[in-house]
Amino acid sequence: MKINEYYRDTANLNLNGSIAALCPTIMIIVINFSIIKHREIMLYTIPFLMYSLISFQLYLFRMRQSIAISKNIVKSEVINQSLFEARHLLVMYMNTQSSRLHLYFSDGHLAGVIKKFREKSWKPLRLSKTYALYNFDNEVLGFFKVKGRKSIMIEVYNRNNNLLGRLEKKNLGWRKSQKELFDGFGRYVGAIEGSSVFMDEKILDQCHQHVGRLRRGWMPLEWNQLFPEPNTPVLSFREILSEEDKLLRMSFLINEYFIER
Q1: Can you list the positions of beta strands (E) in 79-228?
Q2: In this predicted model, what pLDDT tens digit does every residue of 150-192 receive, in sequence order?
Q3: Which of 4, 30, 201, 209 could serve as 194's disulfide partner, Cβ 3.0–4.6 Å?
Q4: Which phi and psi (to 5°) does residue 173 adopt?
Q5: Residue 218: what pLDDT?
């Protein structure tokens, strides 16, 4: 999947919403004309018509974006690159019944997807809410097992089901929380710090040095032809981190997009 296909799929979701909003509108009109026969009843159609109109305009807007991006994207074969090799990844969240997080390379090609893991054959994660990271070939790269409600713990496993560590989130008060990272032996390896007002999540190591960041509004201008929204979040990692280190630290994306949202 390329980024233009993401915008096309988003456009189709808006189109479906527009069509769905017409159904109660038609029902109200038919019932009113055949049974109730009161003018005032027609006022109830206004909210549905407004929603349908707005959704249809969003559909047209997203389709125009998709068409424009498809003209700019390089028509080349997908390079067999691991998402862990990329310095920067663009993060696109699709909020549907089965929500998923798309990660894209800066050239517009899909790097990976995070979504709920539904396979029942993996016993250690069978009874808990679990998300998996897939590459562009739909191969599992790792698992994120969510535990707790008030105090959240996210255990991270690699593709071989080996525990890499965990993210612990403790609520300290209204809109305040502490997010710390531990390795598979329970040793403190870093923390996540961010703003409660805007998206700027800093990934810190045990020495409080930046090793990664998720920011909105800092996308390089040269990416605008493929990612027309300047507020597209960008996830960055330093090269010193190994694949397993990056996978462990990506656990905060589960909290950011699937829990806090």
Answers
A1: 88-94, 100-104, 110-116, 129-135, 140-147, 152-158, 163-173, 176-183, 188-193, 200-205, 210-215
A2: 788 999 999 999 999 999 998 877 667 889 999 999 999 999 9
A3: 201
A4: 155, -165
A5: 83
Tell me the C-alpha to C-alpha distance, in Å, between residue 47 and each of 18, 34, 58, 170, 180. 12, 21, 17, 41, 45
**What is the pLDDT at residue 204?**
93
Q: Minimal CA–CA distance to 62: which of 17, 8, 19? A: 8
Cβ–Cβ < 8 Å for 106, 232: no
**Amino acid at the residue 11:** A
3-state class (DSSP) for residue 120: coil
- Name the β-bridge partners of 4: none
Interatomic CA distance for residues 35 and 131, integer angstroms: 50
Contact 165, 182 (CB under 8 A): yes
Q: At what angle do helices 3-31 and 45-72 cross, to 10 degrees?
A: 160
Distant-in-sequence, close-in-space partners of 8: CB < 8 Å, separation ≥ 6: 62, 63, 66
Each residue's pLDDT tens digit, 238-253: 888 899 999 999 999 9
Please give the model's pTM, rounded to 2 decimal places: 0.86
> Largest Cα–Cα distance in the chain?
73
